[in-house]
Design brief:
Layout (H helix, E strand, L loop, with lengths): L4 E4 L5 H11 L7 H8 L9 E8 L13 E11 L2 E9 L8 H15 L4 E7 L3 H9 L3 E10 L4 E9 L1 H4 L10
Length: 178
């Protein structure tokens, strides 16, 4: 398995991202319009969003480098004033446990730092322990719940907060291609 490459998400990535979204979050997947709306605010001097995709250069997973650049993860962040919100992070099942989620989160926290945000917030399904452990490793702390946040399953969200994202981000030689 090759190491996926992170790059800025663009409009042509929406369809493959939606496929992954529907596979991972069948009950509460984002719509095409939600991604379009956020990407509309991700470029230019007034940008308030950052979205990244992880592309597997070997899309068929056999390690020979002849793949089609399949999207195997993505993440997005919105900023408002000095607070950022992790909108979404997803990693294809075959990449769970590889560190890809941490790589995407690192880039989102770098974006929050670039937006000069003092705090980063997020919601996480209460039944998604894998994600909660990732966020805790980065210094996020649980601060409350949102009852019935995820619909239509009526699943509660754990609200988490990170103070000063710049101190949480370990600077690794991650390269983002835009």
């Amino acid at each position: 398995m090759t190491i996926p490459v992170l790059r800025e998400m663009r409009w042509w990535d929406i369809e493959p991202v939606l496929e992954l979204e529907k596979d991972l979050f069948p009950e509460d997947a984002w719509s095409r319009g939600m991604f379009w709306s956020d990407l509309a605010h991700a470029r230019g001097p007034q940008a308030t969003r950052r979205y990244y995709v992880a592309e597997d250069a070997d899309g068929d997973g056999d390690g020979d480098g002849d793949g089609d650049g399949r999207i195997v993860g993505y993440g997005g962040l919105a900023s408002a004033g000095d607070v950022a919100d992790v909108q979404t992070i997803a990693v294809a099942r075959e990449h769970w446990g590889t560190g890809l989620g941490a790589l995407i989160l690192t880039e989102l926290l770098r974006a929050a730092t670039a937006f000069e945000c003092a705090q980063v917030m997020l919601e996480c399904r209460v039944d998604n322990v894998r994600a909660q452990k990732l966020y805790e490793r980065f210094g996020f702390e649980a601060i409350g719940f949102r009852r019935g946040y995820y619909q239509p399953g009526n699943v509660d969200a754990l609200v988490m907060r990170l103070n000063d994202p710049s101190t949480s981000v370990s600077v690794q030689g991650t390269e983002i291609n835009g």
